[in-house]
């Protein structure tokens, strides 16, 4: 796939159809993938990479890149295309300046996970059926995808690209995922158990803001959390209240716009399952206001900027689910 | 020393200027009793209430927060309360998801003519929150005196 992508990008660069290419490059180690903009074929030959470590969602970089002079080529995985659509809908990306090339994705792992499973000295990776074959300093190691993939990939919602100008590889399908299973499990706990669960998770938060910074839906020019008067800007939480407030508000601000790409959980240095907060909102929206998938199209109105006269009353929360 | 039985909750009531705030006034002129623990904050519309306001109220020591607005269909600005309804449904559901007692938050539709409903709602809400006791799960210790 990497060769196909390289050939395509170089062809378009040389013909002048695009001036820049947004893709991935390797950092110090093979699993340290960084999003990168390339301007020449030589540069691409040297640095461009597309491997099973390329989990980064590139859509958000287009907010800036699409406003620059000239056209940019971008490689998007299926779940990235949802974010792309959502940003188009919010008028954040200049569509005419972007050439989208859809690339297939069979789930992306990361160095941390492999190391935690005892695979050290990683030199390369390739997917073979249900396994990853990892080339290491100590020879080849095989690990099942089920053990190496993050939750967002195990419960992949779609292999279908929502938008593209050109597709490399086969067209996939929207999958029937079990992504709400964990949310349901939490809902069925008692409030005390839920409180303990979230206290354990959220108290690890170091307020690095990585979840906000990486989120393609968080694209405000001025963020509420950067407001010096808010009392919570640029510092670690001093009280458990702040953790809860930060995470409730962060999730609330993207409610109805979150495409469930799972980047927040991927970048969290403390491994807090932040996507479970977003998914709760998605699940509630689906139950209360009808199925809605953000980023599926560029026309529909977001659930929180819309209403119907017969909407459920907030009191439904007291009556439904969850034990006392 | 404070006796458990004499626990007085602090209740913040966000009231829409065009209905519930006048409803509270009517309750007063009709000499209807409702607890003095209810602190009313007047807002121009129920949809003025940002989810952050609710959390802030809890942070600054509220034990319960109630939002009162016009009945659906009667909004002074046509549709404000419809948006508020969706927002609050999701916010309350999220608070419940985090294990915070769901009885501490409420939305009620009270019109300017419903003084009696206002008093009854507040009496009932204060009773519920009093039974729950102090807000421990969404408190900010730095704000405690």
Mean pLDDT of chain B: 92
Secondary structure tally, helices of chain B? 4
Number of strands of chain A: 8
Look at the helices and sheets of chain A and give the structural class.
alpha/beta
What is the count of DSSP helices of chain A, taking H or I runs of 4+ residues?
14
Per CATH, the class of chain B reads Alpha Beta
Described by the principal axes of the CA atoms, the overall outline of chain B is globular
Instruction: Write out the strand line-up for the largest beta sheet of chain B, numbering strands in chain order.
Output: 2-1-3-4
Q: According to CATH, what is the topology of chain B?
A: Rossmann fold
Average of per-residue pLDDT values of chain A: 89
Query: Secondary-structure element sequence of chain B?
Result: EHEHEHEH
Major sheet of chain B, described briefly? 4 strands, parallel
Tertiary shape of chain A: globular
Strand content of chain B is: 15-25%
User: Could you name the CATH homologous superfamily of chain B?
Assistant: Lumazine/riboflavin synthase
CATH architecture descriptor text of chain B: 3-Layer(aba) Sandwich
Which residues of chain A sit in consecutive blocks of at least 5 with pLDDT less than 50? none
Observed structural traits:
heterodimer; A: 324 residues; alpha/beta; 2 domains; five-stranded mixed β-sheet; three-stranded antiparallel β-sheet; 14 helices; 14% strand; B: 145 residues; Rossmann fold; four-stranded parallel β-sheet; 38% helix; globular
